Amino acid sequence: MMVAEAGILVGAPLATVREAVLDPDSYTKYETKVGAVEVRERYDGGLLALIHGNLGPFRSAILARYTVRGDDIDLQMLEGRLRAFHAVFRMAPLDGGTWLVHREEYDFGYGPLGPLLDRALHRWATGTVQAEVRALRRAAEGRVAAASGAPVADGPVTDAPKQDAPVTAGRSVTGPPSESPAPNRQRED
């Protein structure tokens, strides 16, 4: 299994970051691997969506269920080309904003060729997760700016992360999902 993870400090309240994660425009408005998101159903506590994008050099689509679990959002692939895909968005209030960690787990289902494919695509996966946390930061901070009447920068996320909001280095891990930095965290896993 290949895992890519990145985290960033977002200058927005946790509820605003959660709204950005559940808003398809947050992914398609900026440069991410997501090309289009068709929301099939919204329900209390999440949504069901068909996500169109790229899996490395290949076009792909997955049917996924987003489920709000406390402060976190869990994304589970229901249908797609991969044997399995799971993502989580962990959020915690921190330093007047929200610490957002996004983790994606890929199981390509290619048996003994899996580790080779994992190594070949890991750099791509890490870059896409970093791009997504930057896009989510821009979307959430844009909501805050719009609510306060401040001008909102509207452009692709191609700049380096802010000095005070570093993106954590992506890494390949095989253990359990990382923990959010929130103190006294109650997990529902």
Output the keywords.
disordered C terminus, Alpha-D-Glucose-1,6-Bisphosphate, Chain A, domain 4, 25% helix, globular, 7 strands, 7-stranded antiparallel sheet, alpha+beta, 189 residues
Give your account of this protein's structure:
This protein has about 190 residues and is of the alpha+beta class. The chain has a domain at about 1-30 and about 85-150: Alpha-D-Glucose-1,6-Bisphosphate, Chain A, domain 4, CATH 3.30.530.20. The chain is built from three helices and seven strands. The protein has helices spanning about 15-20, 25-30, 115-150; strands at about 1-10, 35-45, 45-55, 60-70, 70-80, 85-95, 95-105. Strand 3 (about 45-55) and strand 4 form a beta hairpin. Helix 1 crosses helix 3. The longest helix has about 35 residues, at about 115-150. It is globular and about 55 Å long.
